[in-house]
Amino acid sequence: MTPRRSISIAGQPAIPGLAFRHPENTPADAAVLAAVHAGRAEADGLDPFSTIDSLATIEELRTALAKAAASGQLERWLLAEVDGQAVGCAVLESWHEEDGRWVYQVNAAVLPAWRRRGLGTALLRWGEALSARLAPLEHPGALWELAGMVSSAQPTAAELLRRAGYQPAYTDLEMELDPAADWAECPLPPGLELRPALPEHVPLVGASIAEAYRAEFPASRFRTTQMETAGQTEWYSDPIHDRSLWQVAWDGEQIAGQVLPVFERGCAVIDEVSVRPPWRRRGLARALLVRALQAVRAHGAPRVRLYTVAEFPTRARDLYASLGFQVIKSLYHFRKTPRSADMSDSMLASLFAHNNWANAQVIRACASLSAAQLDAEPHSATRGTIRSTLQHLVAAQNNYVRTLTLPREERRERLPDPPFEELEAVAAASGEALLALARDEAALAAKGRLLTRDGDQVEPWVIMLQVINHATEHREQVKSMLTALGVTPPSVDGWDYGMAVGAYSTAQQP
Question: Which pTM value belongs to this model?
Fold first, then answer.
């Protein structure tokens, strides 16, 4: 048998017989990992019925190891052993969020008998060091940050994260329904109706859910890309879902809101409760939720659970409590900006980084609109449709870059407006060019006065100023038109961007 290769990690505690290694894609190592999790289950309050803080099974771990091996990512897993016996483990996961940031989270576990000896800190540092190596390789030039998650049953782990520089971000609440709860009949708001959920409705449901959550966190913070339409549609197309349980409210040909139960891990989970902004504050969520609860009870659900975020401005937790749900666990999410990802740009460059981010947020918010919505004439003093305004914004930015970088003879013809489906890519390319110019102010100033296509003379800083002013004006026009359509526009001001890049944080405490 080939001996297993131990690895050294920074800050390895002085425990006799301690060694670290990457697990192998074998049933034996899946069983070793399962034993570590089983050994900590009681101390950490792991719950076999939870879908977000549950006890991992051997089958789940076998699948996870096989997937990691197939993608060459077993280095993201780590086992801690003392004299050959597993005493802890860790895995590094990563995901992409709607603000453009990549997030790397270290999930570590240590058997209770081996805690307070530095093992948890060592596993966390290993994950941070691996993140710092992988992030620039996997996503060159992208913003990234570290994350951690602990439950209300793990106060010591929460303190470890705080000492390591992590800050509270948001809190998931796991809630369970009181078996004795009962509800009065709750009619749908006038003008709305329920319809059976058909396969062709799933993408519309996905789009409705995505829109409902876009304003829940400032600046799309903490929203994974899976929360957008494509991710929602993929998830709700999974055979695990029984659409006969779904409660979907329609207003004509538009979905107003949905409550989507699913049976998982031996209980009913209210997997989704959301109402699109124009139909809120009318009792729709309560009416749909009561119907969903009646449906899962009719199917013999022994227990019913749901999850929500404590900080959501809609205060969904109050609705759930009024229907008999009680908080059984809190899951605290932390974030940390690594030194290598700290903002080091000049103030000018930061202004253009914000401009790029804000443009992307607004374009993405419009990407799921129908053609009729994109081409609707505004009922205000604003001129132009959403489609034409965004096309003009992006085309103008592209031409500003040409003025700053090309000789006049190479830019006599103005570029046409790009197709709508190419707006984000074109805006990103010209935005990066402007950001590069902003980062080299000396070279920009050395260009001297430039000639416009009309023969006017202008200093470079005037064009740079116009880029920011022009984009800001048209983004606000588009946001106004979105509001008029009943679509919540993204919030893209300086505070939102500061929070998105970790330059501004609130005083929230878990």
Answer: 0.67
